[in-house]
Amino acid sequence: MKQLNLLSAAFLALASSSMYASDNLVSLTVDNDLFLQQDEGYTNGLYLALYERGGIPYMEDSGSSPKHNFLVSPLMWSMPSSNNQGAVNALNIGQTLFTPKDLSLEQPDPNDIPYSAMIAITSSYITLAENHADMISTSIGVVGPAALGEPSQKLMHKILGSEQPQGWDAQLKNEPVFQFGRGRVWRTWAAELDNFDVLTTTKAHVGTIQSSVNSSLIMRYGRDLKDSFGSVLLMDSRTTNPIAVNGEWYVYAGLEAEYVFNQIFTDGNTFRDSASVDYDREFLGLNFGMTYSWGQSAITFAVNHSDIFQTQSDQYRNETRYGTLTFAWQI
């Protein structure tokens, strides 16, 4: 509980120090595999994010670009220093839950994903240019009972009338965790009417939460697409799904390739003995969804991490796939 109180205090302090402009956004993202009628692997995520925007051409009276906060300062050397067309500061706090397939077992299957929960704060800073955007991010948090995964899942299952999980006593132990991220998205091609485009991304993460490299190819069809391509960089940190802005709407589909060096949810605790499971470090999957904006609000529904190739047993099939819903509004 002490770690949770510290994280909450840090989030409030960061929010009060950085969110001062008049054109800020808030988003709430809910991830759940029950959207896809399953309850295993990555089972639930709930994320609240605050955004400060500035210096963006399509925004009236947007002022200058916002400053980054201290959490991402160690990575600022990697960011471009010129040719920017605005920036976005994003601050996110969220809870992530992983569970095995069989929730009825008090002693979970050692060959399945272990019970685990994480609460983390992620600070992301995006700089925008005409045809590309760059992002850096820092996440700090805690994994283990302090992340309150057991009461969260039991409350949700009670509300939904679902089976109560029995194996949380075997969850990963308390451990502070961190992750640094760096990414770029290119608007590789766009139709003259701005109703169709192709994006390519490359991202890298280093830390005890996960160390990985990935790249994706994303196609979008809709209206006035030029103003929102930078938001795809926030998917991996679960800050938000791709969101339409400024009266846009679009549908999208992306092919993602990833290699994972380590991830605490499957490798187990970093410095202590705990449950763990073998997994495929290579991943090739699909992300697809649709988003619509109106007035000062936007909504997105998507399906992420649909694995194309499955080389492990059927027990692991689509364990990382989940449905996700984001609602964003201006404050």
Automatic annotation (TrEMBL):
<keyword id="KW-0732">Signal</keyword>
<dbReference type="Pfam" id="PF09982">
    <property type="entry name" value="LpxR"/>
</dbReference>
<protein>
    <recommendedName>
        <fullName>Lipid A deacylase LpxR family protein</fullName>
    </recommendedName>
</protein>
<dbReference type="InterPro" id="IPR018707">
    <property type="entry name" value="LpxR"/>
</dbReference>
<feature type="signal peptide">
    <location>
        <begin position="1"/>
        <end position="21"/>
    </location>
</feature>
<dbReference type="InterPro" id="IPR037107">
    <property type="entry name" value="Put_OMP_sf"/>
</dbReference>
